[in-house]
Amino acid sequence: MIIYLHSLQSPINIGLILRSAELFDAQVWLYDGHEALTSSEAKLTVSDFACGAAERSPIKILPLPLELPSHGFRSIVTSLSADAEPLCEFIRKENDIICIGNEYDGVPHYLSGCADHLLTIPLPRKFLPKPPSKFPIDPSRKSPPTGDGRPSLNTAVATSIILMDWYQKSSNTSL
Questions:
Q1: Would strands 27-31 and 117-120 be described as parallel, antiparallel, or unpaired?
Q2: Does domain 2-171 have CATH number 3.40.50.300?
Q3: Which tens digits make up the pLDDT trace of 24-33?
Q4: Closest by Cα among 1, 7, 12 to 156
Q5: Phi, psi (deg, nearest 5) at residue 138
Q6: What pLDDT does residue 22 have?
Q7: How far is CA 152 from CA 4, 57, 67, 101, 140, in A?
């Protein structure tokens, strides 16, 4: 399985995802559209939060955004859309690429529109607007996150939940 990170902005999230991906034997590909990994400080942050995974299972940096559909792979895009398939019902395949989107805006519509499947983690229905951050991931951003107020999970948390679910389904094991 491949985890494709599209334009993430937080080196902390990238590091945490690398840590989970290594545990569950997933490759990580990244399109660094926001140049989150251009500074040496950001790379050290990724390394710290990856707890060794960045060195043992390096991330594949893509020079351009991934185009879907991708030859030979089934593209799965995370989504908050009402027509997305719930994770608990989804059947994974070995040739899956799971697309994880930016912390503010998720996966762009042009990727969602050509994905083989939309996938969602069902969440309680609540209104939970995000207050302004003291130390935002993107200090230059003026607009609120896409879908502000709709429940959503942190990018690294959602990725870990998906990886755990797929591991349990593939090994037919309960932890």
A1: unpaired
A2: no
A3: 999 999 999 9
A4: 12
A5: -125, 90
A6: 98
A7: 19, 28, 25, 12, 22
DSSP designation for 11: H
Cβ contacts of 21 within 8 Å, gap of 6 or more = 3, 27, 28, 53, 57, 159, 163
Residue type, 120: T
pLDDT tens for 83-138 read 999 999 999 998 999 999 999 899 999 999 999 999 999 999 998 888 888 888 88
* 4 bridge partner residues: 29, 99
- Residue 163 pLDDT more than 90? yes
Specify the 3-state DSSP secondary structure of 156.
Answer: helix
CA dihedral sign, ordered 108, 85, 90, 115: negative
